[in-house]
Amino acid sequence: MKLRIMAAVLALTLSVAAAGEIRPFPKAFRVNDIAVNGTTIHVRVGGAGPAVVLLHGYGESGDMWASLAADLMARHTVVVPDIRGMGLSSKPKGGFTKMNQATDVASLLDALKIERADVVAHDVGNMVAFAFAAKYSSRVTKLVVIDAPIPGIGPWDDIVRSPLTWHFRFGGPDMERLVKGRERIYLDRFWNDFSVDPKTFSEASREHYARLFSMAGAMHSGFEQYRAFDQDVIDNRAWLEGHGKLKMPVLALGAEHGLGLQMAEIMRAGATNVMGGIIPRSGHWVMEENPTMTVHLVRAFLDH
After folding, report:
1. CA-to-CA distance for 130 and 122, rounded, in angstroms?
2. What is the mean pLDDT of residues 239-268?
3. Does the global pTM surpass 0.90?
4. H or E stretch including 35?
């Protein structure tokens, strides 16, 4: 049965797990800080079986994946890093091109003695995941990307002209000064505007992530993720021209009130084997707004 049909049916019967909460990872997960590629990556690892890497996006950290990690660990070794400059990973001045962050992921897997993995990503994590799947294609078995575009791929030029992506060009020293001490105000704009019901992104979660983004260097690192997009476009288009589209199976999930089926359209411009799906009753923040369906769709794809 097609994943989208499954989603439509199960949405009527599955209850949504308590949304918007910061949940702890299972106690079986071990936590490490591993020096790789000129930075230090904070990572959680748990479970047993074929590896799966979970890559978060902007406005959150690896903490967003706790319920998915708990679900997958029975059949997978689950690796959950905070990507460069975010969460509890170190805050370097540079190195934020997605091809460089792909090397962060590869080096992290080397340190963990993991050769190949499925990759699941959201938001900016999609961009790192795409670069990793391109640069290290032999190491990616399956790829899941959730509700965010890829620089230079498909309708990217139209997406960056949308008023909704104003933040792609927001950054630099003056912007850092403007948001210093006001990180929560800045982040609330994303959590509110890109959700169906802002209340699903709980106060506890907002306070948690606002504290992480108030750490020294965190807002600089976040802005640098976006500043790197121009180079990411060049890198991704050059890779496509030189190597062709990704060949591994890809699940492109759009939020019903986010990118929707456009997520699959984007990925078909960069991959040959793409299945599309929609996460119902959700805006962009899928693990807060509809974690039950997100976990179900991801697990069904990885275990098929």
Report:
1. 11
2. 98
3. yes
4. strand 30-36
